[in-house]
Design a protein that fits this description.
The structure holds three protein chains of three kinds. By secondary structure, chain A is mainly alpha-helical. Chain A contains four helices and no strands. In chain A, helix 1 (18-42) packs antiparallel against helix 2 (47-68). Chain B is built from six helices and no strands. In chain B, helix 1 runs antiparallel to helix 5 and helix 5 packs antiparallel against helix 6. Chain C contains 20 helices and two strands. Chain C has a two-stranded antiparallel ribbon. The longest helix of chain C has 35 residues, at 101-135. Chain C is globular and about 75 Å long. Classes of the chains: A mainly alpha, B mainly alpha, C mainly alpha.
């Protein structure tokens, strides 16, 4: 690791190459953003398909910004920032999709209409 | 053997500038990760409650996509200019630093202005956070992001003030680096708000 | 009139308690405070208190402050418990016990909240602060100012929750404040708001500590201490802080959403306008389950250290212990629904979480076997910490098995929210967490203070806790199986439950004696400290780095940076290394962080902020928030936060310790 006199060098970067990274990241992000936007405003496919595409585009832009703006790939070993990032993503996926699964299940079973239907199917009456 | 490859810092070097940077940058990154979980909780809440409009309008009717596109492109550009500012800081170019970060600041203010306009419009037309669970979740998720942006702008203003009066120093540059991580992360969160709240909302999902 | 209302918010003359019990409690706390103030003034120790303790960024000092607050809160929460036991032992048939219904609701709400957030978290952060830097060969944590600020935020939360005793009331909605009960419609008073803000403020302190300790372990280990050479306590702290970092944001959000419902008319969890109270339960337990692992993992770490030291044998199965910790950490995010099996999810959802709950018991079992295997063929010394460990093994295993019973959803349908559940989680928290922390305090006390605690009183305290616990909670297991639900303030005489409740109350009184003896132990040990001096810094024949420095540990911990080549590095150095007489050590000057008066100021401002939020005194809220922001800006702008201790000073201190060591009697170890 270099010790640039008086300069704060985050563990990986050099002064060149970074302008390229910011410009590429910026351009790619614009393309991904406009792409998603136009997909939605032009309604050429079914809603479900569009959702799949725009989510994919969002994940791509997430990766682009992580790599080009936050320089994720350039960490030297041991990759603690990456570890903490992956742990966070795991927790987030469990929390978000777990909550959606649980709450959908609960909402379906615990709405009054559902309860009444179920109780009636159990041989009517309480 | 370089310090970066050796995972243990050792006491003799633990107070050097480099070690301080390593600790602070890593610590701030870790804080950002916790902020992501905070936003994830808000996203989970939004996902669960966004259909609960209590008979009121949903995002399909309420969201103005052109406005949102403008906000998105403005914030994205500010993230880019922030990056350019960091490059100038590396090169110790005080005036360029002030220039690029000033633009970042202005773009941030513009973003907030558009967002507050949108919020005001919703409130005036009777669609405030009191109207339904969906609107409560919407205002809280998007509003929390806006609050983070506001805190960031305050931080940037203080930083720029110090750089303007006292010039670039190791401390200032380290703080600019921390700020830039914060600012990039806010743009990343916005990608998800843009997609999940606005675009999917406009599709009726 | 309106102006006055603006200044005072919701405060009025009716906010003070009127029933004798609450009034008595509310007066005793300020009286105690006045006593302390009088003592400090009489002994002219204000400056000492401010300089040596309240503004000190030395983690050893901060740790002691956390533990003092934690023990105080143990007493406060314990008094709540005694009153609950007294109520349930007497409130049968035509008698309605000693407290009103409303008071009882506040008692169990306060008991749970205080014990978890202020007793357990306090003792935990205290022990970590005391020991972690020394164990990894470091002089401090990664962010010393933030460390002190975390303590003061914790203290601010503690102050707020105790204020509720005298000004207004506390929440009557349980320690987790489920909506709709905790919503404005059914809890219109300030109680739930006190709950929200004391937890929110303390929670931010916890989150910052989580980041602090995690970075400390990752970035500040001494040379040679790679991950698989760290002591197990350090591993357990690493995992704990990973959990804290990723679980506490969920709590922050959930508390905020409830606050927004109550204060800004939002509808996240209201019973109307599309709100969904079940989402609150989901979110709060998504935090709540990792929270209980946050509490237990450091205790597991303490047991690993204690068992190895007092068996005079290295820990059995180091690698599997590490993997067990890692497994528990990741799995603890996948079981949270077992806290609400009965909320109505289907068999697929309930079944998944039931299975995951059973799975997470496995690595815990691995740890128990490894501790026992460590003892096997060791040369065991039954000191007080070992007593706490032995009590833990028995209690925790049985209580854990009770948990596995409830992990089966159909069984849980019968046992959920019964006293069986209450007995189970108290077995875990008392038998697991509290026993571990008390063992840790006993074990590391000499390192911080330079003398050991009185062994006899320590053992008496243990027996009171252990026997008292059995008497208090075995009846609750039985009552739960008989159908008794939790949080009952009265029950019918025909049920035949009263004898069991009376036994339980007796048990609680014995536990109270145990707490009293523990505190007495500390007082007696201080008075008779000359009998128990730790001359060498290694009173227990320890294995890890903290025992290689003198007691009480100097502010810089290590005069010379340790270099490590093995696990149990101090043990290696003592017994296996070639003991060539070391050359005279070459001391260097040491840079350490200065004290900070901003941290306690931020704490005080947080109390004001929280109080303003609770009572709707908006000018106070805004003013204190602005002042906090200004304080933070002042601190970040301060470029001069360290001081240098010159090499001559270090040498002088170290020579002082050598002189003390020379006085050591021949028979060294307890």
């Amino acid at each position: 690791m270099s010790k640039h006199q008086g300069m704060i060098v985050a563990e990986h970067e050099t002064s060149e190459g970074s302008l390229k990274s910011y410009v590429s990241g910026f351009v790619l992000s614009i393309i991904l953003t406009l792409g998603a936007y136009l997909m939605v405003t032009h309604h050429s496919f079914t809603a479900d398909r569009i959702v799949g595409v725009i989510v994919g585009l969002a994940l791509c832009q997430f990766l682009v910004q992580m790599l080009f703006f936050l320089h994720l790939g350039k960490e030297t070993k041991p990759r603690w920032k990456l570890f903490v990032l992956l742990f966070m993503i795991t927790v987030v996926l469990i929390l978000v999709f777990g909550s959606i699964w649980i709450m959908n299940n609960l909402n379906y079973r615990m709405t009054p209409e559902q309860i009444n239907t179920y109780m009636n199917n159990q041989g009517g009456g309480f | 053997m370089s310090e970066a490859a050796n995972p243990t810092m050792g006491l003799e070097v633990s107070n050097t500038e480099q070690a301080k940077n390593a600790k602070t940058l890593f610590g701030f990154w870790v804080y950002i990760m916790t902020d992501c979980v905070l936003f994830a909780s808000l996203f989970a809440t939004y996902a669960v409650l966004h259909r609960s409009t209590f008979g009121g309008p949903s995002g399909e009717t309420l969201f103005s996509l052109p406005n949102v596109l403008a906000e998105t492109l403005i914030l994205l550009t500010s993230s880019f200019t922030c990056g350019l500012g960091i490059l100038s800081a590396r090169a110790r170019h005080k005036n360029k630093v002030l220039f690029w970060f000033l633009i970042t600041f202005v773009l941030g203010v513009a973003f907030l202005f558009l967002e507050l306009t949108e919020f005001r419009h919703l409130v005036i037309t009777g669609n405030s956070w009191r109207r339904s669970a969906f609107l409560s979740a919407f205002f809280t998720l998007v509003g929390t992001h806006g609050l983070h942006i506001s805190v960031g702008l305050l931080w940037l203003a203080v930083l720029l003030g110090k750089i303007f009066s006292k010039g670039l120093s190791k401390n200032n540059i380290r703080q600019l680096t921390l700020f830039s991580i914060f600012w990039h992360f806010l743009d990343i969160i916005w990608i998800f708000i843009f997609t999940i709240v606005y675009l999917m909302g406009a599709l009726g999902k | 009139m309106d102006y006055i209302a603006g200044v005072l918010g919701k405060l009025n003359s009716h906010v003070f308690p009127t029933d004798k019990v609450t009034l008595g409690a509310a007066i005793s706390i300020p009286l105690g405070g006045l006593l302390v103030i009088a003592l400090l003034t009489y002994t002219k120790r204000w400056k000492w208190l401010w300089k040596d303790w309240l503004t000190s960024v030395d983690p050893k000092r901060i740790g002691v402050m956390y533990i003092i607050v934690g023990l105080l809160m143990l007493v406060r929460g314990g008094v709540d418990a005694l009153m609950m036991r007294a109520q349930q032992a007497t409130s049968v048939g035509s008698s309605h016990g000693i407290v009103s219904v409303n008071t009882f609701q506040q008692l169990f709400s306060a008991h749970g909240t205080i014990m978890i957030f202020f007793m357990a978290m306090g003792l935990m952060f205290g022990l970590i602060n005391l020991v972690l830097p020394m164990m990894i060969g470091s002089r401090d944590v990664a962010f010393p100012f933030m460390n002190l600020t975390s303590f003061w935020l914790f203290a601010a939360g503690m102050i707020l929750i105790n204020l509720s005793l005298g000004i207004g009331q506390f929440s009557a909605a349980g320690w987790l404040a489920y909506p709709p009960l905790s919503e404005l419609r059914f809890s219109p008073g300030v109680g739930v708001d006190y709950w929200i803000w004391s937890l929110q403020i303390a929670g931010i302190g916890s989150l910052l500590s989580g980041i602090n300790f995690f970075v400390t372990i990752i970035k500040m280990r001494c040379r040679g201490m790679n991950l698989m050479k760290m002591p197990l306590f350090v591993w357990s702290v690493l995992c704990t802080n990973l959990l804290i970092m990723f679980a506490f944001p969920i709590l922050t959000v959930t508390l905020t959403l409830l606050f927004l419902d109550r204060t800004m008319g939002m509808h996240f969890f209201t019973s109307g306008f599309g709100g969904n109270p079940m989402m609150y339960v989901n979110l709060i337990w998504a935090w709540g389950h990792p929270e209980v692992y946050i509490l237990i993992l450091p205790a597991f770490g303490i047991y690993s250290e204690v068992v190895a030291t007092f068996s005079r044998k290295r820990l059995f199965g180091y690698t599997s212990m590490v993997w067990a910790l890692a497994a528990i950490t990741i799995l603890s995010f996948s079981v949270w629904l077992h806290h609400f099996f009965t909320m109505g999810a289907g068999a697929d959802v309930n079944g998944f979480f039931g299975i995951m709950t059973m799975v997470i018991a496995i690595p815990t079992g691995v740890k128990i076997f490894n501790w026992l295997a460590t003892m096997f063929r060791g040369r065991i010394r039954f000191t007080t910490p070992m007593y706490w460990f032995m009590g833990f093994v028995g209690l925790f295993t049985v209580g854990g098995v009770a948990g596995v019973v409830m992990s089966v959803p159909p069984a849980d349908f019968q046992l959920h929210n019964s006293l069986f559940l209450v007995a189970h989680f108290h077995t875990m928290i008392v038998g697991g967490v509290v026993f571990g922390y008390l063992a840790g305090i006993t074990y590391w006390f000499p390192k911080i203070f330079g003398f050991r605690l009185n062994e006899r009183l320590g053992k008496w305290s243990f027996w009171c806790w252990f026997i008292g616990f059995l008497l208090a909670f075995v009846p609750l297991y039985i009552l739960g199986l008989m159908g008794a639900t939790r949080r009952l303030d009265h029950y019918s005489a025909s049920l035949g439950w009263q004898p069991l409740f009376i036994v339980s109350a007796i048990g609680a009184a014995i536990i109270a004696a145990g707490v009293g003896i523990f505190i007495l132990q500390i007082i007696v040990s201080i008075i008779k400290r000359k009998d128990n001096i730790d001359y060498t810094g290694d009173p227990w024949n320890g294995r890890t780095l903290e025992w290689s420095i003198p007691s009480p540990a100097p502010f810089y911990n290590f005069a010379i940076e340790p270099v490590v080549t093995d696990r149990d590095p101090f043990w290696q150095a003592k017994h296996l290394a070639n003991n060539n007489e070391a050359e005279a050590p070459h001391y260097k000057s040491i840079t350490m962080p200065k004290n900070s008066s901003i941290a306690p100021i931020i704490g005080a401002l947080s109390v004001a902020f929280g109080f303003g939020m609770i009572w709707h005194i908006w000018w106070l809220t805004i003013a204190s928030l602005v002042a906090i922001i200004v304080s933070i800006i002042i601190r970040i702008s301060d470029d001069n936060t360290d001081f240098v201790a010159p090499a001559s000073k270090i040498e002088e201190i170290e020579l002082g310790y050598s002189a003390k060591r020379a006085l050591a009697p021949k028979e060294k170890y307890a």
